[in-house]
Write a structure and sequence with these properties.
The protein is mostly beta strands. It is built from one helix and ten strands; from the N terminus they run ββββββββαββ.
Length: about 130
């Protein structure tokens, strides 16, 4: 059962078809929620501190290895990965988001992200 606020969260499907949803509002801003389609009695599993930073109006994108990159969010000029591994349990600065930010209109929410065929990510913000 989803117990935290999912407003302005983001999500993406894993290679096995499970849905991973990240962030949200208030008590949901650092939560990762997983809906595992392979279970017998399907329900949401919440991971309360699944994200390093607060994520509201964030974007997820699946990478070639099946993990997800979680980019941006309100006043978050960084990215992180899910699921966490020993080498990816932190957030990484993304200078582009800070340089293109307009605090008056709060742009850069839900950045657009595309995985190119060469494995590089292309993204842009409004």
């Amino acid at each position: 059962m989803v117990l935290t606020d999912v407003w302005c969260s983001s999500g993406a499907l894993t290679p096995d078809g499970s849905l991973v949803q990240t962030g949200g509002f208030n008590d949901g801003e650092r939560v990762v929620r997983v809906f595992d389609k392979s279970c017998g009695k399907c329900d949401w599993k919440e991971i309360p501190s699944g994200l390093v930073n607060r994520r509201w109006c964030v974007i997820n994108h699946v990478l070639p290895d099946g993990c997800q990159i979680v980019i941006g969010g309100r006043r978050q000029f960084n990215y992180e990965f899910y699921p966490k591994t020993m080498s990816s349990d932190k957030a990484y600065s993304l200078t582009f988001l800070a340089q293109t930010n307009d605090p008056v209109i709060e742009n850069n929410l839900y950045p657009f992200v595309f995985l190119n065929t060469d494995g590089n990510l292309f993204f842009f913000c409004e």
